[in-house]
Amino acid sequence: MNPNIPIVRELHLIDFRIRELTEEIAQLPRYISEIENKLESHKVARAKDQAVLEENRKARRLMDGNISTCEQKMSQLRVQMGEAKTNTQFRAFQKEIEFSENEIRKTEDRILDKMVEAEKLENNVEEAEKALQAEKLVVAKEVGRVSTQVSKDENELATVENTREQLITGISPQVLTLYTRVSKARQGIAVASVSNERCMACNVVLRPHLTQKLRLGEEILTCESCGRILYRGNLQETPLEDPAGESNIVA
């Protein structure tokens, strides 16, 4: 067998892993941003509930102030009513006092309604705060988990890249140039297995003379359709499959 063939296959698997690790590491800022956006939504919900509750409290303070004003006015009217010189003046003061008393009762009813509303709002704020704190814990845990995984990926990436540097010293410059060119042209998939006389990358049937050469294994051969470097093997062995499994970044 041409000694470059197993090296090319190994190089392809290593490059696949390098791309996978690089992409996985690059996901960290985006993933952290996504989970922090969830946290921000809880902060917004809490802020809205707190704002509504504060408006409720302001309205109650204003109504309490109106009651105080009415009581002061009633106190003055009673003094004036005691000094009235005619029945007409007396009844006028009495009518104003009754009007103020009615306003106080109406305001007190509104205050009670606001107090009932405030109880619900306070519960909302409390629940929003609990949800926020719970989400903070989830985010902190997830950030820690992802950061640990990325640290492992970075260590593995350094090891794999070092392995690659050592591996390419055993491949001929011409084959390495071919591999690099095909890899760039085919989105990193430079190698394809052959099964049942087909290129398993593009599924094109190979011509008989090409399959015969592959059996001999003396030359570096490429698919006449997709240009990938060919090797004989089972479909399960093809580097087109993910050799490392699914990404570990996103849960």
What does this structure look like?
- The chain has 251 residues and is mostly helical.
- It has a domain at 25-169: Helix Hairpins (Orthogonal Bundle), CATH 1.10.287.
- Helix content is 73%, strand content 4%.
- It is built from 4 helices and 3 strands; from the N terminus they run αααββαβ.
- A 3-stranded mixed β-sheet has the order 2-1-3.
- Strand 1 (191-195) and strand 2 form a beta hairpin.
- Helix 1 packs antiparallel against helix 2 (87-167).
- The radius of gyration is 40 Å and the shape is rod-shaped.
- It starts with a helix and ends in a 19-residue tail after the last strand.
- Residues 234-251 have low confidence and may be disordered.
Give the biggest beta sheet.
Answer: 3 strands, mixed
In which range does the helix fraction lie? Answer: over 70%
Mean pLDDT comes to 86
CATH architecture of the domain at 25-169: Orthogonal Bundle
Query: Strand-residue fraction?
Result: under 5%
User: Topology as H/E string?
Assistant: HHHEEHE
Report the principal-axis shape: rod-shaped
CATH fold title of the domain at 25-169: Helix Hairpins
The value of Rg in angstroms is: 40 Å
Low-confidence stretches: 234-251
Strand order of the largest sheet: 2-1-3
Terminal Cα span: 44 Å
**CATH C-level label of the domain at 25-169:** Mainly Alpha
Structural classification: mainly alpha
Number of strands: 3
- Helical segment tally? 4
In short:
The protein has 251 residues and is mainly alpha-helical.
